[in-house]
Amino acid sequence: MFTLLKKDMKSLRLSDGLETKQKLEIYDPCINILDRMLPKISGEKVCRWIREDMKSMMPVIMLTAKVEVKSRIKGFKLGADNYVVKPFSAAKLKVRVEAVLRRTESRCGKLRFTGFMIKPAKGEAWIHKSQLELTHYELKLQHLFM
């Protein structure tokens, strides 16, 4: 299972790596909780795709049953920001999510500059009270420049 958490803690649950990649091309989530062993396309390949092909800095927390140190190292080298071993408590995962979101808060909040506002998590850009129609990449560039 794969979950995209938004700033308001709404989530989108996906069942495999292929569906995950398709949704990531549409949405720009605040954080990814990515199972390492997803069907169709592994979580490892999805994480590598996020970092190398999408060139995204969205936080990734990798979930896995693999407990070996070298597996954890591989997860971090793939681009994971944090690593949670199964079984885990919901409280432990929540604390890890909160810690990652504290470090990456500006990625999901509203950014404003002289009448211009972007909401990266919602994929929206506004000038005064009019919503702009920007492509995913145009929005990412504007976010980067702000």
TrEMBL record:
PANTHER family reported for this sequence: REGULATOR OF RPOS (PTHR48111), TWO-COMPONENT RESPONSE REGULATOR ORR33 (PTHR48111:SF1)
Keywords for the protein's UniProt record, in alphabetical order: DNA-binding, Phosphoprotein, Transcription, Transcription regulation, Two-component regulatory system
InterPro entries for the chain: CheY-like_superfamily (IPR011006), Sig_transdc_resp-reg_receiver (IPR001789), WalR-like (IPR039420)
Statement: the UniProt record of this protein carries the keyword Transcription regulation: yes
GO terms, biological process: regulation of DNA-templated transcription
Keyword set includes Kinase: no
Gene Ontology terms: cellular component: cytosol; protein-DNA complex
PROSITE patterns hit by this protein: RESPONSE_REGULATORY
PTM annotation (4-aspartylphosphate): residues: D35
Response regulatory domain ranges (all copies): 1-101
Protein name (Swiss-Prot/TrEMBL): Response regulator transcription factor
GO molecular function terms attached to this record: phosphorelay response regulator activity; transcription cis-regulatory region binding
Entry superkingdom: Bacteria
